[in-house]
Write a structure and sequence with these properties.
The structure holds two protein chains of two kinds. In chain A, helix 1 packs parallel to helix 4 and helix 2 packs antiparallel against helix 3. By secondary structure, chain A is of the alpha+beta class. Chain B contains five helices and four strands, in the order ααααββαββ. Classes of the chains: A alpha+beta, B alpha+beta.
């Protein structure tokens, strides 16, 4: 089964003000995390930076007034293209922005249009982005708490959740019951038990019995991680 | 049939991972010590202990179902379910698990161990309000929250009525269940 290419992307000012993000209107916490991380990662402007965040990569491009950040997995072959797009956006906005603390509506719309255009060029599924958001941002939070002293300020945004991870993906193709097949598809370590239960309409008890069945077969593990509180 | 059951039990004894009751008691006592020494009241200690038990509830429910194939169809099966939970956690049966119907829509289930729950044996509590079955109370509370839709529960109250750690002759947990419709 081919996994979709997804990412969380944010453009923010060097004063920490979110300008544009994908998924839309969900990027604020991500932008705050990026801002915290950059504040302890001194860098020269206009130098591409790649950081490891769990099994994902954080691509950063910091200008004088604008920061581009993209967190994604399985796109490292696109690294050069990502930074080309980041450079274009950051240079363009750096010229326009007068005060990095004040970002007007028109500028936000322009930045968002550029961002979406860039994601389209990269072949990243924008519609699928929002479903991964809570876990991906949770991974990012973990890194921020490890690297910075101010991770505590994000504490109320996150909670511990359990993410079922099916170890044998061939079971997805073999499963004939469509509902269970969908359940197994979602058990890739990126979706919490709570999310899966709600998305598929399982009661908590039904979901847990299915999960228990695969754990018993040693085909699944429960991963503990951080999740953004919805 | 009898041989099969005996083999199953033997497999459980030899192969299943089990909670070491001594270790569990040590963790409980360390928690109480830590909270009290940091200024918590006995009520807060109890609340925190039960809250930790609730956090354990989801994983215990999943782990229980990796050992037993249990599907609850009616409230009458609850005593057996709770007995299985007890055996799963402690490797022994409680002295008694009984269900009493209070009305058409309300039942009470009592779990009693005359030797004390394994979490409470040999412990003398520092305060009458701190009964050492708090993890078990929290676990059971959370499990009924997980089961509430299937059982059609409108309300459930789990409390530790007696505990050997505060001088009672036995440990006793009572679970009051109110059902939405005719599930009883």
């Amino acid at each position: 089964m081919r996994e979709k290419r997804t990412a969380i992307v944010a453009v923010l000012s060097t004063a920490g003000v979110p300008i544009a993000s994908a998924p839309e209107k969900k990027g604020d916490v991500f932008a705050m995390l990026v801002y915290s991380l950059i504040s302890v990662t001194p860098t020269k402007p206009y130098v591409p930076i790649t950081l490891d965040v769990e099994d994902k990569k954080l691509y950063l491009f910091v200008g004088n007034k604008v920061i581009f950040a993209m967190l994604s997995s399985k796109v490292d072959d696109l690294r050069e293209k990502i930074f080309e797009i980041a450079e274009e956006i950051v240079y363009a906005l750096d010229k326009i922005i007068v005060d990095e603390g004040i970002i007007d509506q028109e500028l936000q719309e322009k930045a968002r249009a550029k961002l979406l255009e860039g994601l389209k060029i990269l072949g990243i599924d924008v519609a699928g982005l929002k479903y991964l958001y809570r876990k991906v941002v949770g991974d990012m939070y973990k890194i921020v708490t490890e690297l910075t002293a101010n991770g505590e300020k994000f504490h109320s945004y996150f909670r511990i959740a359990y993410f079922p991870h099916l170890l044998d993906r061939s079971l997805v193709d073999k499963e004939e019951n469509l509902r269970i097949k969908r359940l197994l598809e979602l058990c890739d370590g990126n979706y919490s038990l709570e999310y899966i239960g709600k998305a598929l309409g399982f009661t908590r008890a039904q979901l847990y019995r299915h999960i228990a069945y695969y754990i018993k077969q040693k085909k699944m593990v429960l991963e503990m991680g951080f999740e953004l509180i919805a | 049939m009898v041989i099969n059951l005996a083999v199953k039990k033997l497999k459980w004894i030899l192969k299943a991972e089990k909670i070491n009751a001594v270790m569990l008691r040590v963790i409980e006592m360390a928690l109480v010590e830590n909270l009290i020494n940091n200024g918590s009241s006995p009520e807060q200690v109890l609340k925190e202990g039960i809250s930790l038990g609730k956090s354990m509830g989801d994983l215990v429910f999943i782990a229980l179902h990796t050992r037993f194939d249990i599907v609850l169809r009616e409230a009458l099966e609850l005593p057996r379910f709770l007995e299985n939970l007890y055996v799963f956690l402690f490797g022994e049966r409680p002295s008694k698990v009984e269900l009493q119907e209070l009305s058409g829509e309300e039942v009470v289930i009592r779990i009693e161990d005359r030797d004390g729950f394994p979490t409470c044996r040999g412990i003398v509590s520092p305060h009458q309000k701190i009964k050492f079955g708090f993890y078990l109370v929290g676990i059971i509370d959370r499990i009924f929250e997980i089961l509430k839709d299937e059982l059609g529960l409108s309300e459930w109250i789990v409390k530790e009525d007696k505990c050997t750690s505060v001088g009672d002759e036995s440990c006793l947990i009572s679970i009051n269940l109110k059902f939405k419709r005719e599930e009883v």
